[in-house]
Design a protein that fits this description.
The chain is an all-alpha fold. It has 4 helices and no strands. Helix 1 runs antiparallel to helix 2. The longest helix has about 35 residues. The mean pLDDT is about 95.
């Protein structure tokens, strides 16, 4: 029950901050953005105190550990893969253009519009 109250409070704070951001448009944008960020941080801090927040934090921690395990491609591998993709897109574009031209010719021939 306490978690539901905390999440409701966090959501209400965030909603109030968003409404205040738009209603207080006579104040400079910088102050409104800083206020929105501050209330958003407080809302996130409250939300992280719940079971769902702790689960989300553990998930993010696990994700960061898994990201460190990834073997990222080298610059050379990335460049080669990008060039292969570009060449294949061009080749497929040409093939589809030729197929389109053939189908246009065939439809004109079948409908009697061709010369």
């Amino acid at each position: 029950m306490a978690d539901k109250i905390k999440l409701s409070l966090a959501g209400a704070l965030l909603l109030a901050a968003i409404v205040a951001f738009y209603l207080l448009d006579e104040y400079p944008l910088l102050y409104r953005v800083l206020g929105l960020l501050a209330v958003g941080g407080v809302s996130a801090a409250i939300g992280l105190q719940t079971v769902a927040g702790r689960n989300a934090r553990e998930f993010l921690r696990g994700s960061m550990i898994e990201i460190r395990k990834v073997v990222w491609p080298t610059r050379k591998e990335t460049t080669q893969t990008t060039l292969i993709v570009i060449v294949m897109v061009i080749v497929m574009g040409i093939l589809l253009w030729l197929l389109d031209m053939f189908l246009l010719w065939a439809v004109r021939l079948l409908t009697g519009q061709g010369v």
